[in-house]
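input
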Amino acid sequence: MRNEIRIIGGQLKRSKLSVPDRPGLRPTPDRVRETLFNWLMPYLDGARVLDLYAGTGALGLEAISRGAAFAQMVEPDRALASAIQANADRLKVAAAVRIDATTARAFLTGEVEVFDIVFVDPPYALDLWVDTLAALPDWLSERAVVYLEHPAERPPPFAAPWRALKESRAGGVKFWLLQLERSHG
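output
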């Protein structure tokens, strides 16, 4: 496994992120990140970002690089959480990053904060997509979007009130940009 990945755009473009070797860790490939961040451009400036399954921290740090104001990262593996903090410190963006070394489930039962962009890319073997999406509505700003990554061979793990704004596929991965349909009544 590669022990580093690069930020691909923004003020930190080409910065390397060191990545501890962990079984099951799947850093989002450059091609997928490029598509994702093209989709996110209208939402990034000044955004509050939540990365619920941070892993390498690449998505949250890429969002900061491209104009997000704040990235909350959730990663229960303490070595990975420490690596994210070390990368944020080295890149001088630590003031815009907060890392909680807990599970997404535990984090989402805490005090609610509101975010503009949420990344949902859990370990595939844990099958956490449906439960995670169900826990999110109170955490989303009015204009919030959610990035969801999922194995392509499985059916999409979402339905109403979620709607897909964008979708794509890369190899065995399907990914979407979702938005919550809110009833105004």
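quick obs: The mean pLDDT is 91.
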